[in-house]
Amino acid sequence: MNWLEKIIAAKGSEIVAAKKRVREFRALAEQRRDFRDFAAAIQRRDRVRIIAETKKASPSAGIIAGNYDPVEAAKTYAANGADAISVLTERNYFGGAPEHLTRVRAAIGLPVLRKDFIIDEAQVFESIAIGADALLLIVAALKPEQLSALHHLATTHKMRVLVEVHTRDEIAMAVDANAKIIGINNRNLATLEVDLNTTEKLVSKIPQGITIVSESGVRTSADLKRMAAYPIDALLVGEGLMRGELSLEEV
Predict the structure, then answer these.
(1) Widest Cα–Cα separation across the chain
(2) 188 close to 215: Cβ distance less than 8 angstroms
(3) d(CA 185, CA 73)
């Protein structure tokens, strides 16, 4: 079993819990009107945009922030020029929780992305109910029909969707699902290995008119400059910022 499969397999109890509250989440989703425009925030204009991520841990790095406070991290990011915030809500391997996102969104004015492994419609309604402005869908974790259905459900409820890919075939699936924002993950989720060349190899394969995000692996100012030179709109940066190895002032 690879890492992505392990993470998905461990989410069973979370999904059962979300399904038990799906009527509540759906009702909150139908009432919500306060979405912040994640898509507009990450459109490249004068410079590459930054989605700054708050996370306590990861399978590849272990504990990243021992005294983890997602609100303080997000407030620091916002004060130093981040364009959007990503909050890890996955519990088992990343030390996250849905309530982290709710607290972060109440403390800042930027659009907030829910970073999790979403495979069921109950999680989409939950994402809206907890205050997310956008959510992540990982092509490698979903069948084509699941991807299309979850993307449609989210967008019809005014959510933005970051559709994550790692191969040319996955780009085709994302495009078929009508993705408007595609994230190229430089990390192979099966092995957790990182290769920044992934963005270079795939960026030209994404059709014109789609917003492009490069995810994972940016740890130094040299990495940031290298990635910003590609025709992408935004970078999603987490561990380097959480560890203090990278500063938003370098963007």
Answers:
(1) 48
(2) no
(3) 23
